[in-house]
Amino acid sequence: MHMAASPDKVGATGGAGNSSSIAETLAEFARRRKSFWIMASLAILFAVWEIAGRIPISFAFPTFFETVTAFAEMVSDGTLVRAYAITFQPLLLGITASAVLGVGLGIVMGLSDKAEWLLAPVFIVFQAAPMAALVPLVTFVYGIGLVAKTLAVIMLALPVIVLNSYKAIRHVNPSLVDMCRSFQGTRVQQICKIIIPDAAPVLFAGLRLGIAAGFIGVILAELLITPTGIGDLITYHRSIANYAHMYAAVASIIAVSTLTLTALQYVELRFLRPEKRRK
Amino acid sequence: MANPRLAPTAHPSGAASPDVIVEVRDICKHYNDVEALRDINLDFERGKLTTLLGPSGCGKTTLLKIIAGLVPATSGQIRINGKTVTGPGPERAFVFQDFALMPWATVLRNVAFGLELKGVPQAERNRTARHYIREVGLSGFEEKYPHELSGGMRQRVGIARAFSVNADVLLLDEPFSAVDEQNRRKFQEDLLQLVEKERKTFLFVTHSIEEAVYVSDRIVLLSPRPGRVSQIIEPAIDRSAAPDVIRRDKSYLDVVEEIWQGLRQYAE
Amino acid sequence: MKLFGFRIPMMASLVLWALVWEIVGRMDVIFLIPPMSSIISAGFGLVATGSWQSASLVTVRSFVLGMALAIAVGVPLGIAMGRFRIVDNIFGLWVNMFVSAPLSALVPILMILFGLGETTVVVTVFLFAVWIIVLDARAGVMQVPPSLIEMGRSYGASRFTIFTKIILLSALPEILAGIRIGLIRGVKGVVIGQILVSIIGYGELFELYSRSFDMERFWALTMILFAAAMLLSAVVEHFEKRIEYYAGAR
């Protein structure tokens, strides 16, 4: 499912309505453009949201338009931008640290049986287990500052990145490695010219999954450790029963993470997989 | 011949041939409890194309990889030009069944890769690579990626890469098995021309009887479980004739039939 | 790995790590890490307490309810997406989005909608688990080999028979794989839900032990939880392998 809708395609959806045979045009359009279905499924959910908000299904359930208005308000007065500036700090730091450490450890585990034996079980446990339970612990040592939140991100992102990098290295095409050996490539050449390039797409996909986990980590940290950034917006507006603003903040972080992941997926397809480039 | 009693053809020299380049001595290979190869003794003459032919499970690919130095033998020795093999070496080049092309590299870089690993400067290695790309008939495809080529073209890249390093012995592991029938025939004809032109020693693994008879100076038949040399055949076919003539030649067809009679007991 | 010619199973390194932990704990480097032995003895004490038993009951109940809901909704939705283009087109965007979205951000909303109780945790488990179940069921249905369906049609099977006897059975390995990953995500969901709600089940106990700096019990509880998660995943994996024997032949 590709979610990269370009604005001009989206604009064309509205224009199609004036034609005499609207249904036919739409059907034709739907066949050709994926963006039509993106628009359609967005519209359906937002409509359901609006209706549910108008009934209302709960006193704490604002309509879609109230939420959009609140979102616009928070964007225009700068609160959202300031909140993201704070939230992104531990996220970026944590992801960078996890990426460097995780890809490094994963490669070592993929190349060495001893490292695999020693480390793989630990990370398998960390990935399968609910690491969130340990987030409160970091506050004991590192207080409630940036370090604690960065650590929360690392705790969730690192195991995912390590295990995916490790699997990427273990699944390198053995025939390519043999090819390199048959031309008397040294071990270093084997690693740099064959193993890492061949594993690169999966390594990158692992990073993407790690970033998804990092988003969960940073939100948990901001909700559990101390309210700052986007977590503060959520907690604050909830405490003053300003539900439209709270929903807007939640929706925005989900949207931001989705857009980030989609962009990374695009980068992966565009630059790392030449065999899939022509589509 | 290492084991002349198994060679039914009237081969005069029982002793080692004057110009032997690859010697296989008492090679045995076990994978855990499975015996893959037992007491293989073979000599390969310089400048000849020898085929290892046999049903699946006879260890022909394993033997080729042992000669390449990619797989260690359980016991026995391989000697190339009189020197014992301990691993891959510059006098041998391998062509892989699944092509083993780097999907992220262009045809040019793939062909030049063997030279790149040896540290040959870029301009020089590209010159050599372009020469062999032309030789295998891929001119104009230098900047393409492997996924943009057909199976047959990909294997031509693999062969060009093996030629570029200027090895004495080319080891080809079922190079045409992933190529469709028409291209395969064309390929066999092109290969014969290259053999003629490049004057190298070829060791060729296949499971196709017709292919073996068509391209080989000498065919080594292996029997399965465990792999042993069961027969050595030297098809006396006039290579100067046109391909269509060869394929209808009486002696060509006779050799095919003879091999089939030897192998049919292993068919499922 | 091999040592002195013996194969050492992979998970054995965990014993080594437990040993390192014990030594670090005994050296009294940091109050956060008590010796492994005292954690284990605290664990046995903990299991005997009424508060642990009732917390476990609540946790298991929320988990089972949430998972049952996720499977009941996820599998049919995934199959429908795999079979009908329009369903796929409408839900595809949201399923793909939520499968990797930071769902922990939704928990505060669930807390105001469903109150600070079990319902919120059940919904959290559902939301964590359902999307991957949908995606895998969809993938399973979509990769049924067309030749199998054509085979069924050529032997005169009705659409219903083809669906139940060919499509569903062929998709079973993928559906089970989805449920296994869903279970692991569900465990994370139940913990994140309870920690954020923080007044029920393990969330309450975690809160209690960390506030009173009772590290032995905190770690004991964590390890019980981790062990339960691993055990659950191992059990489903075992079950999956028994199903997969025929999937290998596809």
Automatic annotation (TrEMBL), chain A:
Coiled coil region boundaries: none
Domain of life: Bacteria
InterPro entries according to UniProt: MetI-like, MetI-like_sf
Gene Ontology cellular-component annotations: plasma membrane
Keywords recorded for this protein, A-Z: Cell membrane, Membrane, Transmembrane, Transmembrane helix, Transport
Pfam families: BPD_transp_1
GO terms (BP aspect): transmembrane transport
Membrane topology (UniProt): Multi-pass membrane protein
Domain ABC transmembrane type-1: 84-265
Transmembrane residue ranges: 36-61, 81-105, 117-135, 141-163, 202-225, 245-269
Annotated CDD domains: TM_PBP2
Subcellular location: Cell membrane
Protein family: Belongs to the binding-protein-dependent transport system permease family.
Protein name listed in UniProt: NitT/TauT family transport system permease protein
Organism name: Pseudaminobacter salicylatoxidans
From TrEMBL, chain B:
Keyword Repressor attributed: no
Protein's name according to its UniProt entry: NitT/TauT family transport system ATP-binding protein
PANTHER family the record matches: ALIPHATIC SULFONATES IMPORT ATP-BINDING PROTEIN SSUB (PTHR42788:SF13), TAURINE IMPORT ATP-BINDING PROTEIN-RELATED (PTHR42788)
Any GO MF annotation of the entry: ATP binding
Keywords attached to this entry: ATP-binding, Nucleotide-binding, Transport
Family designation: Belongs to the ABC transporter superfamily.
KW ATP-binding (keyword) present: yes
Any single Pfam family the record assigns to this protein: ABC_tran
Top-rank taxon, per record: Bacteria
Ranges that cross the membrane: none
Domain ABC transporter as annotated: residue spans: 22-249
InterPro entries with a match to the protein in the record: AAA+_ATPase (IPR003593), ABC_transporter-like_ATP-bd (IPR003439), ABC_transporter-like_CS (IPR017871), ABC_transporter_ATP-bind (IPR050166), P-loop_NTPase (IPR027417)
UniProtKB/TrEMBL annotation, chain C:
Cited Gene3D superfamilies: MetI-like (1.10.3720.10)
Localization annotation: Cell membrane
Predominant subcellular localization, coarse grouping: membrane
Domain ABC transmembrane type-1: 56-236
Gene Ontology CC, one term: plasma membrane
Top-level taxon in the UniProt lineage: Bacteria
Entry's family note: Belongs to the binding-protein-dependent transport system permease family.
Name recorded for this polypeptide: NitT/TauT family transport system permease protein
Species annotation: Pseudaminobacter salicylatoxidans
